[in-house]
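User: Structure tokens for this complex, please. No commentary.
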Amino acid sequence: MNKIRVGIYGYGNLGRGVEIAVANNEDMELKAVFTRRDPSSVSLITENVPVVHADKAEDWKDKIDVMILCGGSATDLPVQTPALASMFNVVDSFDTHAKIPEHFSNVDEAAKKASKTALISCGWDPGMFSLNRLYAECVLPNGKDYTFWGKGISQGHSDAIRRVEGVADAKQYTVPSEEAMNAVRSGSMPELTTRQKHTRECFVVAKEGADKAAIESTIKNMPNYFSDYDTTVHFISQEELNEKHSGMPHGGFVIRSGKTSENNSHVIEYSLKLDSNPEFTASVLTAYARAVVRLANEGNHGCKTVFDIAPAYLSPKSADELRAHLL
Amino acid sequence: MNKIRVGIYGYGNLGRGVEIAVANNEDMELKAVFTRRDPSSVSLITENVPVVHADKAEDWKDKIDVMILCGGSATDLPVQTPALASMFNVVDSFDTHAKIPEHFSNVDEAAKKASKTALISCGWDPGMFSLNRLYAECVLPNGKDYTFWGKGISQGHSDAIRRVEGVADAKQYTVPSEEAMNAVRSGSMPELTTRQKHTRECFVVAKEGADKAAIESTIKNMPNYFSDYDTTVHFISQEELNEKHSGMPHGGFVIRSGKTSENNSHVIEYSLKLDSNPEFTASVLTAYARAVVRLANEGNHGCKTVFDIAPAYLSPKSADELRAHLL
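Assistant:
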């Protein structure tokens, strides 16, 4: 059987995660990694796989079954996914929720024109969490769902702290409130404010001589990022930050409670506890890359989301095997 | 828009659950309930819905979009699902795991011959738990999954106790071991014996003058049902049994842990906490009934399982709405 030939477009944390995930799936092989950097400056984990400049991707049109895009949602993917969908079957992790309809429409047009299959907004949220929100809502229509994130590192919030005057380095953990989660699990369907759902914990390295009180106050009052939350700031040394906070753990919870009849309520809970956010996200992208290739082989083109893909397409096992062993 | 016309075949706890679930879904209407009993002896919750003898089902071929089968897996469904799939789109909850391949093949043949769509083995296990086993395995191929059931009433085990000499009535709870679940959640991928995963708790009403020690010993040593488990037997009065143990709660956990790389492991956990096993099962069947009608309308016939159905088919919402609000 021919292996699925995978390309990786963009080689940061997520790209390296996909490289690892492809190695974990025996029916796949990494064909090439595409980068906007000088290819000679990039070294891969896998041996004997070429690093190619992004400008040369078109030359690989017939050598790659699916391209997994590992760029960022802010500026990379809105441009890259439609462009690459005109040459390849593609998977991306576009996560700017408000712009998903627009991105879908751009990618759908490009993919259909080129008779390619594209999957956008894959990963864990959007992705596995979205699936769980959907399944739970369909099964318990009279109910309410709640998504909690963490405990985990938020890159965006960490970056925001690093931009504060006097800050040398920082990591921010998003922490879901146990109290809020337990209220949800009780089936009482509480109304929860932003402040009640999550707290934020910051580990900050101050520059020498910096005004720590001013830093703490600036962080805690930062609109959008922190002002709506109960935030704790800890000042620590660069050494301690490197030693204790250099991982990229994350995770979260999707909980729906609902009633079927007056006296009977039910709670559906899905949770993830991840040592490495990028490696897990990459694993989801890679499983869905298999599905995308199959849909493309069936002539099912255009843009899809995880909602549109039957679960069996994700597995290397046959339908008979799945029915006999996993059902 | 025309509502989906649902038929219920078999009117016990599960059938009543489907009746409630159909009422909870605005795009559906209950068209008729089919029973092998004397229809005049059956009264429904819903007003103005006919109760029809099972023998007359064929007369309703053109008046029902999907028939939800609510019989038992031991003797009813192996016969009923293929027979009804030759006249209707159908959904069943067949749960004899070892016989799923045979049942699938029988139903597939009947449904294809009649150009109908059938879904078998739907509910929560098989069903939602199967989906979670599949998704988690695809996303974390280097891992191990564990299914725990309970805390909940097992009908089969309760029945087995009631057959013991001297027993007037009984309820049995399957209880998952917190210790075993925590070992799994730690990511250590333990090997667990049957005894380590679940305990069994029995509430027994003895007949007057019965030998309680003999009853307890017979239960605890019963092969298949109890001898492989740590079992606790409580003797209580019929009044207490009725008062405290008349519900049908259930639930459980599907937990998979796996590694992406040497130092990074991840835990995916799905759990259900159900006040009413039959009402929740019925809610799953009903959501999938919508999917079955859509597949049938697309000409996608034959037998399916939950693995074959894209999640979007379960929802009454449009693809645009799902992308904008749930993704």
